[in-house]
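We give this protein:

***
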Amino acid sequence: MIKMKNGDVVLFQGDSITDGNRGRSEDPNHIHGHGYQYIIASEMYVDNTEIDFDVVNRGVSGDRIAQLYGRWKEDCLNLRPTVVSILIGVNDCNGMYQNNNGSLPERYKKIYRCMLDEVLEQNPDVLLVIMEPFFGVSKDEAYNGYMSAHVWEYSKAAKEIAEEYGAVFVPLQDMFDEYAKHTDIFKLIWDGVHPTTGGHQLIARRWKECVEERINSR
């Protein structure tokens, strides 16, 4: 069980995988969207009913890391989070394939460092969680070939950043690769990028496995 503290603000950030069609109003039935972040938030709230804390989702569909940094003040620093979980990178890889409009891994790392430096300057005790960009299988052979050949570069960069900043790293690619050995991967990631309901459940489980001990030991 994840144990929250009074005053905690848990922020989930990223692209469409995190966005999950979240509502843009204060309607509590929709503010977390659907997906791994909703599953995690649900458990946090029901397991900590006596604690005053909040879970916020600010994922934006289509975001690359530069776009995430562009809204970092409004959608991170202004919220004063105590836990920041980030899943970003697959759109940078996709952007390079589509129109040469993503960030290559070195620039990806530079921007990631800027984001983390700013949130740490605001709160040196913030718990950082960096989730691994991943890719399944696409039915478009050219796209599948490019993404399979290059997404690991962003995964490697994310892991390096996590190690550099002492963040919790949440590996995801190995988990999906393992499941793909004995199940139809399209049942977990339907288009190579976006998880199904089952895929989101797996992400939520892995997140909790990796983060629970660190968050509870604060």
Q: What stands out?
A: The two ends are 14 Å apart (CA to CA). The chain has one domain: 9-216. The mean pLDDT is 96. The longest helix spans residues 141-165.
